[in-house]
Amino acid sequence: MKIAIVGAGYVGLVSGACFADFGFEVTCVDANPDKIAALEAGKVPIYEPGLAELLDRSVRRGLIRFTSDLAGAVAGAEVIFIAVGTPSRRGDGYADLTYVYSAAEEIGRAIGASSEGHRTVVVKSTVPVGTGDEVERILSRTLSRERFGVASNPEFLREGAAIEDFKRPDRVVVGTEDERTRQTMARVYRPLSLNQAPVFYTDRRSAELTKYAANAFLATKITFINEMADLCEATGANVQDVARGIGLDRRIGPKFLNAGPGYGGSCFPKDTVALIKTAQDHGTPTRIVETVASVNEQRKRAMARKVVRAMGGEVRERTVAILGLTFKPNTDDMRDAPSIAIVRGLQDAGARIVAFDPEGEANARDVMENVRFARDPYECARGADAAVIVTEWDVLRALDLDRLKAALARPVLVDLRNVYEPEVMRERGFAYTPIGRVD
Ligand code: UGA
After folding, report:
1. Ligand 1 contacts CB of residue 335 (under 6 A)
2. Which of 126, 171, 320, 329 is the one with CA 20 to 30 A from 208?
3. Annotated domain spans of the chain
4. Would you say the CB of residue 19 lies under 6 angstroms from ligand 1?
5. Atom 18, ligand 1: residue with shortest CA distance
6. Do residues 405 and 424 make contact, with C-beta atoms less than 8 angstroms apart?
7. pLDDT single digits (tens) 30-87
8. How high is the ipTM of this complex?
9. How far apart are CA 377 and CA 356, in angstroms?
10. Is 375 annotated as a binding residue?
11. Residue 258 in contact with ligand 1 by CB distance below 6 A
12. Which residues, including other chains, have CB under 8 Å from residue 396's CB and lie 6 or more apart?
């Protein structure tokens, strides 16, 4: 089977690499010629563990290629995925569907101009409910209805674990409106069903909404435990024990109950806001999700105040070492990272910032001002009045604590990811502030 993937971003590249690894012939299309040139030269534009190796293997086997020629790629493909970005529209927070619709128009023209044969157009981008209907309308301007089907197939992979998530997902969700499209999708996902992954078929609108509902639910779970963490701090309880205690109930489950500085990234912040907009438009506001989004925003700023408190209430002319900047480990992604609000909050209070991140420095430079970057955690801590762990990178999980303490001007460590144990830190002579736990 020949597959074309329009959009060589995160989802497009990972899906393309994995489909090629399953033996399909994949063409990845992107409008950005620089990105295509880089991919052809073997350079992967994003940091994702294992992706470069996987792409390299498929390139050598001749199963994946990269091009800016959408028409050419689509002409030969039986299944065409739309995996372009759906960023938040500036000003109003709706998902911006410009790229999805212009991809659909180009695909329609390309199929119209090519030889006969049925095509399945699959929307993999995260899109508001009803977008598949609009894609179908766009395609039917240039194509007769018998020539194509439109499926919704949202992606649930996490950055940093994307390949594993793609190949061994908890589930695949496929939304279709006709039997032929459904059967084509069953062939696409046959390799995954051999991995015992449940492929769940539903109608298109339900599939579209499932994606937003899943992300909103996970964002809610995180925000819930973050509020419990605040309550734990106020009452002397331990949020990690509370999380374990509730997570052992299989109806709740143990995952996504790690308290932290608030969720960030390219998905939860924009998808919760887009869902809120859709729900308001339909006269059925999602008040829980509205609260989650605003509590999370406030939390990021509150984390700067927590650091100020840990430093004795005054940070003017003091230096704070920020350890970890990306919204989570194993990515270079800085989109909506809590570190941005934390750094800004500390700077507003008069602090100087020095920061270290293993992969995120280049992207961080684009979104942060007046920050000095260090090459490693110890250089970062040198002479600083406090260190703050914002992202739980592996290199920050096993720090040489004596070396860190010796580097710091004052042994103050704020651990926004609960990487360390309060008793151990106290013994080591740190003034240690974790999340949701008190000494
Ligand atoms: C998220 C979802 O987990 C994926 O299933 C989904 O496919 C993806 O969005 C998407 O819509 O594309 P991702 O944004 O890569 O994936 O990252 P997560 O691992 O979900 O983490 C999101 C944020 O929540 C991070 O800032 C992380 O630090 C935070 N988080 C996560 C917590 O604070 N506590 C937790 O227990 C878990």
Report:
1. no
2. 329
3. 2-201, 260-433
4. no
5. 158
6. no
7. 999 999 999 999 999 988 999 999 999 999 999 999 999 999 999 999 999 999 999 9
8. 0.98
9. 6
10. no
11. yes
12. 323, 324, 377, 389, 419
- In angstroms, rounded to a whole number, what is the distance separating the alpha carbons of residues 220 and 268? 10
Q: What fold characterizes domain 260-433?
A: Rossmann fold (3.40.50)
Q: Active-site residue numbers?
A: 267
* Per-residue pLDDT reduced to its tens digit, 319-378: 999 999 999 999 999 999 999 999 999 999 999 999 999 999 999 999 999 999 999 999
18, 55, 95, 137, 175 from 67: Cα distances, Å: 18, 14, 26, 27, 28
270 assigned binding-site residue = yes
Whether 2-201 and 260-433 share one fold: the answer is: yes
Cβ 158 under 6 angstroms from ligand 1: yes
Structure tokens at 429: 């002579």
Which residue puts its alpha carbon closest to atom 34 of ligand 1? 258
The CA distance from 62 to 423, in Å, is: 55
Query: In ligand 1, which atom is closest to the CA atom of 11?
Result: 12
Whose CA is closest to atom 28 on ligand 1?
328
User: CA-based Rg of the chain, rounded to a whole angstrom?
Assistant: 24
> What's the pTM?
0.95
- Residue bearing the CA closest to ligand 1, atom 5: 156
116 is in an annotated binding site: no
Ligand 1 lined by 215 (C-beta under 6 Å): yes
Residue 126 labelled as part of a binding site: yes
